[in-house]
Amino acid sequence: MKPTVVTEEQLLRRIARGDRDAFDELYRRTSPYLAMRLRRRCADEGLVAEVLQDTFLSVWRTAGSFGSVRGAGGAGWLWTIAARRLVDALRARQRVREVPTDELPARSAPPAEDEALAGAVGDELGAALAALAPDLREVLRAMVLDGLTVRETAVLLGVPEGTVKTRARRAKIALRGALS
């Protein structure tokens, strides 16, 4: 007899009822994924750990609201919380000092989101996305894949809101031109 696989959604419902074992299982399953995605956005391991902790604290407190989010899967809901917590942490840090962007390590491989998006959307759109400048792809990734607002994207990327809007517009025009 095959063991029954419990989904993240089922774990979240159990967590909403105060089930600590379900919380432990959700953390074990999803924290490596969330940490990896957070590291793609932030090079500061300490901040990533802090955001991860804040994310799961929020999950424990708000798991009951999961069912009210239309169409959200468990992992997507968790990432939305983590991304917003990262934006909050970066915003708080910016109030204290400016974050130097020259200290961030260069990426040696394309982000997993880029690879997945290119494969999921088809060859033509995938090629058009790959041809975009990295700064335009970053804005699209934050706003489209992560579902962040212009303000949150600006904080995450460390650029003014106007720059985010301009990059989003340039990306849209470039994609439209490449696909027409």
Automatic annotation (TrEMBL):
Keywords, A to Z? Sigma factor, Transcription, Transcription regulation
Q: Which GO terms describe its molecular function?
A: DNA binding; sigma factor activity
Return the similarity comment: Belongs to the sigma-70 factor family. ECF subfamily.
State if Transcription is listed as a keyword. yes
Single Gene Ontology BP term? Answer: DNA-templated transcription initiation
Q: What is this protein called?
A: RNA polymerase sigma factor, sigma-70 family
**A Pfam family per the record:** Sigma70_r2
Stretches assigned to the RNA polymerase sigma-70 region domain: 26-95
Look up and give the organism this protein is from. Answer: Cryptosporangium arvum DSM 44712
Keyword GTP-binding applies: no
Where the record annotates domain RNA polymerase sigma factor 70 region 4 type, the positions are: 124-175
